[in-house]
Amino acid sequence: MHHTRLDTAMAPAGLMRAALREAVRWCEGRVAFQRRLIDQPLMRMVLADMALDWEGALALGLRVAAAFDDPGQKAFARVGVALAKFLSNKRCVQVTAEAMECLGGMGYVEETPMPMLYREAPLNGIWEGSGNVICLDILRSLTREPEARAALEAELDAAKGFDAGYDVVLERHRTLWPGLPADAEARLFAERTATLLTASVLLRTVPGPVAESYVRGRLDPERGGRWGRRAGWTWERSWRRRGDGSRSGEAGGMEGNGRSAAPFGFGYVGRRTAMADDREERIRERAYRLWEQEGRPHGRHEDHWHQASQEVGDELFEQQGATDSDERRGALDGGLLPQDALVAPGGPAGSGLAGLGMMEEPEEERAHRQQG
């Protein structure tokens, strides 16, 4: 097993999160047709749909990371990391491009971080094996290592009974490929297997509405090929609190895994934590000053952004009394996952959402997570 491959499987989640945050922040301030973009139903649909891929990549990456730490799961880790790397990197390029489109022309120019994220998005899909190499490696692992195939099947079976739609798609998948596919079908097999594996992890680890939405949005062929095209979804019902404070997932009798319908990031759009807002503003101001000090050069500004991120990160950690700022500095870089999202590898992906700067975790949800 190669830990570098695990890096390339996890990094897309951080890039998607960074691109998504830029899109959300822009939509919070941009007004069109007398309403903020974030209040437009179609834009909310697109953003929430994109967020599913981020949530899935994070959950699957943490599950594979947990297998790397467990010698008894070496067989699953071997094939799981390849599946995660393939799917997450393919999704990352698409999500980053869609997030750039949310910003319009401003997302294309160098005054925002989006061009940097867009250039970075394909890198991890090429590093440590491009798409074809990874897909053929998956087939080779399943052919040469019967224990890897058994571990993968067990992981897929672990979510049976959680969602009827998942069970149907899993059965179709096994009917289509009772054995392993020919090399020419390796990509199709890898994509569908990785998507099923992601759904399995989500159904077992995250709040019901998020997992159910992933199943409907990624396993249902009616979804279409782009975000926001799935007809019949009611994101407001699934991911927002009702006016009376109760959860729509609970009140509406949604079938699921029996866990509480915890809010997802876009149910709380606009409730970014004060710390996240302050951090981002300080980084932007510092980057602008660095740019001015160098005579306002034309072209790429990644160096200014990264230097500002590092300086602000060190300052914040010093204020908190941290002594390992070099090691933890990446938590404040817009392109990396925050440390609290990785506290418990393999744990519920939703447990780290409050640290992503996109939502503030409600007290009752924090208490529920700590108890369970």
From TrEMBL:
<dbReference type="GO" id="GO:0070991">
    <property type="term" value="F:medium-chain fatty acyl-CoA dehydrogenase activity"/>
</dbReference>
<dbReference type="InterPro" id="IPR052904">
    <property type="entry name" value="Acyl-CoA_dehydrogenase-like"/>
</dbReference>
<dbReference type="InterPro" id="IPR036250">
    <property type="entry name" value="AcylCo_DH-like_C"/>
</dbReference>
<feature type="region of interest" description="Disordered">
    <location>
        <begin position="240"/>
        <end position="260"/>
    </location>
</feature>
<dbReference type="InterPro" id="IPR009075">
    <property type="entry name" value="AcylCo_DH/oxidase_C"/>
</dbReference>
<protein>
    <submittedName>
        <fullName>Acyl-CoA dehydrogenase</fullName>
        <ecNumber>1.3.8.7</ecNumber>
    </submittedName>
</protein>
<dbReference type="InterPro" id="IPR021327">
    <property type="entry name" value="DUF2934"/>
</dbReference>
<keyword id="KW-0560">Oxidoreductase</keyword>
<feature type="region of interest" description="Disordered">
    <location>
        <begin position="319"/>
        <end position="372"/>
    </location>
</feature>
<feature type="domain" description="Acyl-CoA dehydrogenase/oxidase C-terminal">
    <location>
        <begin position="1"/>
        <end position="142"/>
    </location>
</feature>
<dbReference type="Pfam" id="PF11154">
    <property type="entry name" value="DUF2934"/>
</dbReference>
<dbReference type="Pfam" id="PF00441">
    <property type="entry name" value="Acyl-CoA_dh_1"/>
</dbReference>
<keyword id="KW-0285">Flavoprotein</keyword>
